[in-house]
From TrEMBL, chain A:
Protein name: Uncharacterized protein
Organism domain of life: Eukaryota
UniProtKB/TrEMBL annotation, chain B:
Name used for this protein in its record: Uncharacterized protein
Length: 208, 612
């Protein structure tokens, strides 16, 4: 495996205001929940080291403001993202309906190289509440229709599925990263121009 | 002015050397609209054999190459960084040529390179740097190298970066000889640069890139290599200290035979100590009003408050004036009537949303969205403060009612996240629904551009902040740019809600109060304030304003009128136009007991006998 060097994964959390983006990030990173988070203004990030398949990976998790108005700043935050987490509130159907536009907006602004296979993860948050309004089935169907995006039902408050979800986020981001590197190396290997070869860092290494 | 005469451009001129990515930063006598344009800096030969340094704006060049003018042969040898352009210019220029800048080599007296090869200035007249260019790629040394083929120059004794032109070189092909004379490079001791120049002709693109990256390495990693890894915060702190304290490097004027060589380091002058006045007391505040309750010396009172703040006991009253709720010139009786009208207006707007039925709401999505956002944010605004803490806190209801009424007051703007943060301290202070609403309205009027739908106001502020930082602390600005933070987005929250999230409520009262008194443009300076309590920020403001290299861009950011000239001369005692704003321009009294002097001054205007 040639991708040992890159260990920083940039993860962006998006979703409507008040769905629990900050809470999820804090539950995962600090193992804490508070009723007293403030509305996120601009963007914040936390980092956490995790182990994925025996590799130490640093996740840099970007928490963003939920109000649509602040999206025009997104491009600066989205750039270089390795995975995008879309969050909705299972008790608020509107936040579920917004997923589509959050996903589109991300793809437009971050413009990843391979948009069809860019790793997204969907989190249906606040499953600890009684007044649920979006069924798991409905959410799953939507995720399947979008190229089988992984779906988790979480509770940031009671730490349900949070760890598992972020493990998947890390794994999928990492897989994407590895593929990207293979992608990158390929053109170098088949270059026929001898002059150009001399400038390759890896010299004349064979692809195999 | 010789540097800007363009009417007599010969029809046929020949480019001897061109370098692109050069921004016109300043030029004496040019309108500000001509500045900050990117273009190409060239050395050209006129038909009569005389030579000029010529700068052409890029849009001009683009027009010509786009139209495939056959008299132009654009040879793009090295991609975007460097472009060699040869051929003859035609008269097609007519309209745009007025923006071209020409400096005849015969007139050139001095030039200098500063800021790590990023900036180059030219002078044809002793004592004034008439033209300043900014090299985007930090490669001014290349231009210098070519320029030296055409003029004979010598470094001045006192400033290694300043060159005096001895005489224009008559022969144009003294390339090898000139390279040997490039003392700038030997003194820099870097073979890197030497090789750069000699390789430049063969492999211009690679050479430039390679050398540039090496130079960058030296600039950025030089310390690290010798001292080992250092703490980043330590690094930043040092950069900050370095750029803020390098004030003692005095301006020197050297007489060298017949030329007067002036070297002005682009550093800020010493920071003046701005003493903080004592807060305005209840007695003084009352004394500022006439018998009817009118306040006539508004600007003076504002200055007093800006200098020293106010006693907390009168803050409630003062804020109503500062936030344009109570007009300064109203009598007590007029204010009572005014307040009554405003109360009625408030409750009629409140009734508009209070009387909305569930059915109406269900068919009014734009209203519903705003309401839901308000509800979400009210429940997470300052809940750790006793005033808003606990379940079923009645103050939260008031907070929500005011924000909802504001939605009806300005439906287009509606509710934007951050507003609840701004309202909370106002409500905490005034503890009155109607007063808080109108004061909130007044504050929103001052900072409404923070909440633009397209965030244009915020983006502009961040850009201005970056420009100010580049001016006041270029090292720190460069460091941030290197760390991908040149967009200053890390300041977004600070600016959006005016540091509300970063300080305690007590400090926020003082900070906001200062903000109320600043015009929108000046706010940026405090935006990068480093020690608000002792007026360091204002000291920095004065440093920037009186910096000899202050240019129009910075002047405008600080709320001054542009002067349309950008380099001020040494002989000017006060190169800065008198401020039109209300919070500065009190130079004459700095260093004295500011608040007493001012208070006396203000009071004399109100009632001549008040102090006797």
């Amino acid at each position: 495996m040639s991708s040992r060097k890159k260990v920083l994964l940039k993860v962006i959390i998006l979703g409507d205001s008040g769905v629990g983006k900050t809470s999820l990030m804090n539950q995962f990173v600090n193992k804490k929940f508070s009723n007293q988070y403030k509305a996120t203004i601009g963007a914040d990030f936390l980092t956490k080291e995790v182990i994925v398949d025996d590799r130490i990976v640093t996740m840099q998790i970007w928490d963003t403001a939920g109000q649509e108005r602040f999206q025009s700043l997104g491009v600066a935050f989205y750039r270089g993202a390795d995975c995008c987490v879309l969050v909705f509130d299972v008790t608020a159907p509107n936040t579920f309906k917004s997923l589509e536009s959050w996903r589109d907006e991300f793809l437009i602004q971050a413009s990843p190289r391979d948009p069809d296979n860019f790793p997204f993860v969907i989190l249906g948050n606040k499953v600890d509440l009684d007044n649920r309004a979006v069924s798991a089935k409905r959410a799953q169907q939507w995720c399947q229709s979008k190229n089988d995006i992984p779906y988790f039902e979480t509770s940031a408050k009671e730490a349900v599925n949070v760890e598992l979800a972020f493990q998947t986020i890390a794994r999928n981001a990492l897989a994407q990263e590895t593929e990207a590197e293979l992608y990158n190396e390929f053109p170098d290997q088949i270059k026929l121009n001898a002059n150009d070869n001399s400038r390759n860092r890896d010299g004349d290494n064979c692809a195999c | 002015m010789s540097s800007s005469s363009v009417e007599d451009i010969p029809e046929q001129i020949k480019d001897l050397f061109t370098q692109d990515g050069v921004l016109l930063k300043a030029c004496l006598g040019r309108p500000v609209t001509d500045l900050n344009a990117i273009g190409m800096l060239c050395i050209v030969q006129n038909t009569d054999g005389t030579k000029c340094i010529e700068w052409r704006p890029n849009d001009l060049i683009t027009i010509d190459s786009d139209t495939q003018d056959h008299e132009w042969a654009v040879v793009n040898t090295i991609g975007r960084r460097q472009r060699t352009l040869s051929g003859n210019l035609t008269a097609d220029y007519a309209t745009a040529k007025a923006r071209i800048i020409k400096i005849p080599l015969e007139d050139l007296k001095t030039f200098r390179v500063t800021r790590n090869n990023q900036q180059m200035q030219f002078s044809t007249k002793p004592g004034v740097w008439q033209t300043t260019f900014y090299f985007q790629h930090g490669n001014a040394e290349i231009f210098v190298a070519y320029l030296k083929n055409h003029v004979k120059s010598a470094k001045t004794r006192h400033d290694r970066n300043t060159y005096m032109v001895v005489e224009p070189n008559i022969e144009s092909q003294v390339l090898n000889k000139s390279f040997a004379e490039l003392d700038i490079f030997t003194e820099n001791t870097t073979d890197v640069v030497w090789n750069l120049v000699s390789n430049f002709k063969q492999r211009p693109y690679e050479t430039t890139l390679e050398a540039f990256s090496k130079l960058t390495d030296i600039v950025y990693y030089g310390n690290e290599a010798t001292n080992g890894k250092r703490d980043v915060s330590e690094e930043v702190a040092e950069l900050l200290t370095k750029s803020m304290s390098a004030m003692d490097e005095a301006t020197t004027v050297t007489r060298n035979d017949e030329y007067e060589v002036i070297s002005v380091k682009p550093t800020l002058p010493p920071r003046p100590c701005i003493p903080r006045g004592t807060p305005l007391s209840t007695e003084k505040w009352d004394a500022l009003k006439d018998t009817q309750g009118r306040i006539t010396e508004v600007d003076g009172v504002k200055q007093l408050i800006f200098r020293g703040g106010v006693a907390h006991s009168i803050r409630q009253s003062v804020w109503k004036y500062l936030l344009d709720y109570h007009p300064w010139t109203m009598t007590h009786a007029e204010i009572r009537a005014h307040q009554k009208r405003k109360t009625e207006e408030y409750f009629s707007m409140k009734l508009q949303w209070r009387s909305m039925t569930d059915g109406q709401e269900s068919r009014f999505s734009e209203y519903r969205d705003r309401k839901s956002l308000v509800e979400k944010d009210v429940n997470r605004t300052d809940r750790t403060h006793p005033f808003f803490a606990g379940d079923n806190n009645p103050n939260l209801v008031v907070l929500q009612d005011i924000l909802m009424t504001y939605v009806m007051y300005n439906f287009d703007l509606g509710y934007v996240q951050g507003m609840s943060d701004i309202l909370a301290p106002i409500l905490l202070l005034l503890n009155n629904e109607v007063d808080s609403f109108w004061c909130f309205v007044g504050f929103m009027d001052k900072i409404v551009s923070n909440f633009d739908m397209d965030q244009a106001g915020m983006k502009n502020q961040l850009l201005q902040l970056q420009q100010l930082l580049t001016f006041a602390s270029p090292d720190l600005a460069q460091h941030l740019a290197q760390k991908d933070s040149g967009n200053m987005y890390f300041c977004f929250r600070w600016l959006l809600v005016w540091y509300k999230r970063e300080f305690s409520h007590r400090d926020i009262f003082r900070l906001l109060q200062v903000r109320f008194l600043l015009s929108a443009l000046q706010s940026n300076l405090l935006g990068k304030q480093l020690g608000f309590k002792d007026n360091t920020a204002e000291g920095i403001y004065h440093q920037i304003v009186s910096a000899p290299h202050l240019n129009d861009q910075i002047r405008v950011i600080l709320g001054h009128q542009p002067l349309n000239i950008s380099t001020s001369t040494q002989s000017d005692d006060d190169p800065v136009e008198p401020s039109t704003s209300q919070v500065n321009g009190e130079k004459s009294i700095l260093g004295q007991d500011v608040d007493e002097v001012m208070y006396t001054r203000v009071c004399r205007k109100v009632t001549p006998n008040i102090l006797t």
